[in-house]
Every structure is written in C-alpha cells, then in structure tokens.
Amino acid sequence: MDKTDLYTVADISLAAQGSRRVDWARARMPVLHALKEEAMKTQPLKGMRVAGCLHVTKETAVLIETIAAAGAEISWSGCNPLSTQDDVAAWLASEGYSVHAWHGQNIEDFYWCIDKTLEFKPTLTLDDGADLIVRVHGERSEYAEGVIGGTEETTTGVHRLRAMGKAGDLRYPVIAVNDAETKWDFDNVYGTGQSTLDGILRATSVLLAGKTIVVAGYGHCGRGVAMRAKGMGANVIVTEIDPLPALRAVMDGFRVMTMDEAASLGDIFCTATGIKDIIVGRHFKSMKNGAIVANTGHYDCEINIEDLKSLSTSQRSIRENNEEFTLANGNQIFLLAEGRLVNLAAAEGHPSEVMDMSFANQYLALVRLAQEGASMDSIVYDISSQQDADLARTKLATMGLEIDDLTDEQIAYLEDYTAGT
After folding, report:
1. Pairing with 140, which of 250, 274, 330, 401 sits 20 to 30 Å away (CA)?
2. CB 150 within 8 Å of CB 127
3. How far apart are alpha carbons 50 and 131 in whole angstroms?
C-alpha cells in the first residue's frame, strides 16, 4: 500500500498503465471533452471543493479532469470495495489529485477512505450510492454545514436520498443525476447490460447461448441485462414485484414468474433490484447443480451470502471472482464477485461512450449547484428536460448524426388546439 496525506493507493508504480487506460477513455468521451475545453476558459467551479465517492475507473478519471479544469479542488474515494481500478487510482495520484481508493477494501477501509475525502471540508459532494452523503449527515455531520449541494449517480442512492428528503433529514440540495433520461435510458440500460455480461463471462467463461438466465428486477438495469442476454442466445426469465415492469417484460418476450418458481430453472442468476434478500436460502436449496449467481445492484445484500454459507459444507475459490459453494446435498453453486457489482468487480464497468453522457450530467449538475445551491431547498432535484435534450443533441453530433427540426408551420400546428379532421 502506498500512503501519503494526498493519496492512498495500492501501487503508485501502476501510474503509467493507468495513464494509457485514461487515454483510451478520454478519446471516447467527446461530450465531456467539449465541456472541459469550455470549463478551462470560464472556470465555473473556481473556489469549490468537491468530495467525490464514485467508482475509480478510467471514465471517472476523465470526469475528475473536467471538474478540476473548471477550477475546483478535488478529493476522491471509491464507492465500492471491489470496483477501484488500481492503475487508474495510481495515475490520479501521480497527477496530483487527492485519491484514497484501492481494490479489495474491507468495510473499515471503505469508510476510512470516505472520511479522508471529507477532511478538506467540501463545498460540493458527488456520490454513487449515497454513502458519502449519509456519512456527512451522520458520523461526520460536522462537515455538512459547509456543503452547498450534492449529486447522486445511481438508482439506489437516489432512493435513499428521496427517503431522507421525505423524512426532512436532508441538510442540503441534491441533484438526482441518475434520473436524467440521458443517464438511465442509456447508462443503466446499455451500459449495465453489456458490462454485466462482460463481468459474468470474465469470471466464468461459460457459453450463454442456450442457458436459462434469471434476471431479478426489470427496471432500466435489469432490462439491459435481459436484452443483452437474449441477444447472446440465452433463455431469459424475469422476476419482479411491480406489475408494470413485469407486464413490460412479458410484452418484450420474456417469461415472468416468482423467484421461488425460477430458482429450479435457472443456470445463471443476476439480481438488479436495489433490494435486500432477493435470493435467499430456500432458493439456493432449489437451484441446479452448477448454478451461477451474480449481482449487478449497487450493494451486496441482494444475494443472502450468509444463507449460502450456512447451507454449505465447503467453499473454495475456483478462479478470480468465482467462489464454489458445495451444499449438503452435493450441489455446487458458484458466487461471482462476492455478490458485489459483477460488472465493476469482475470487469471494467460501463463502456466509456455511454458514461460520456452520465458524467456530463454530473459536471453540469455541479456547476448548477455552485451557482444556485445556496438558494435551493434541501430536497432532491431532477435534471431539467432542456439539459437532457441538449446533451442528447450534442452526443448525436459527436457521432456524426443529425435530426430534423420542426418548421414554423409545424410548431404552430402543435399549438393550435382547433386543428382537427
């Protein structure tokens, strides 16, 4: 472990390798690049101190560069014990950024790193899962007074923060970046779908074609996993608790049933719900010999690992991010990435191209908070529809694509309620 007051990373000598990875991401994030170029001139975050708690990946490094180019000071930690890319963390440290993150943390390490990012007394927070924000409202509440506002990247975190706001416990405004259409309709669907299967394949190398894959949850993330699994030739079963996404899954051509029914049918299981205890002891007992279990929700509580351990007579590591549990009945169940985000723990997370829009939203949300946060209420805010549209148009332009514009006559027609047959 390489540790200084400025950074704590696994191995600073990995910086050169990290630099190459960041170069790769930077070249595939043109929207963020354009914002960075403008930020260098206008300095909209000058004087701000941003504490970030978000997966330390090559894409996050490009976001950090953009925030710094806008004039902000930065301190960063990872938002998951297994998601940090150590070479990227080393590169950030070598570039003079304050970063405290490494792959393979325990829970004490995880919160120690968050606390380190708070020591420079942030004025803005950027979160993925709300652990930092909850920390500022709890064990480290002495830092809350100086915070103007915050942003939240993921569904689980937004749910936590809306609950805090409803209870009247939120002490500063937070913008729900996750709920932007240019985030959840693209990052959550296409990013999660591709990267989750990538993680499962890296940890197992199994053939997906012909397998029965059970996807728990048919929100944006689950929909993406189901779509991509179907594209690889898998037979997909969806489990749900909400009738609307369940019906949507049926209309998309998937079988829908309870987890109790699906447990004996699945070859591969993937949870994507944001809720605890989706797969528990009785499900493990019903599973086939050789069943593979993974999670792509933010926390590791969706699969009840303690139940799995209690049912097992032995446990061993088969390969990286793949543990074999032998049950009393002789069946073997394989748990991937310790039940944590399989797309980040066993793979590299979402592709750079889709994170381009999500992180552009993060940056723009920080700029808004720097300008308006002091006068905003302590509630959760959505990204404006205009920002969504502008980002989507910019992304299309970087792809060399154009779309039609309404004519004056068409605009008039839309506003003319007397027009009819």
Report:
1. 274
2. yes
3. 15
What is the pLDDT of the chain when averaged over all its residues? Answer: 97
Contacts of 328 (CB under 8 A, 6+ apart): 311, 312, 313
Give the distance, in angstroms, between the CA of residue 291 and the centroid of all CA atoms in the same chain: 26
pLDDT tens by residue, 378-416: 999 999 999 999 999 999 999 999 999 999 999 999 999
What is the distance in angstroms between the CA of the first residue and the CA of the last residue of the chain? 73
Per-residue model confidence (pLDDT) at position 19: 98
Task: Give the 3-state DSSP-derived string for 61-81, with helices as H, strands as E and coil as C.
Answer: HHHHHHHHHCCCEEEEECCCC
SS3 call for 209 = coil
The identity of residue 183, as a single letter, is: K
Residues in the chain where the model's pLDDT stays below 70: none
- All structural domains of the chain, each given as residue ranges with its CATH number in brackets, are 2-185+350-398 (3.40.50.1480), 190-345 (3.40.50.720)
Tokens 């991937």 belong to which residue?
A: 336
Instruction: Give the helix, strand, coil percentages of the chain, each rounded to 5.
Output: 50, 20, 35
Chain centroid, CA 311 distance in Å = 31
- pTM here? 0.94
- Residues whose CB is less than 8 angstroms from the CB of residue 397 and which lie 6 or more positions away in sequence, other chains included: none
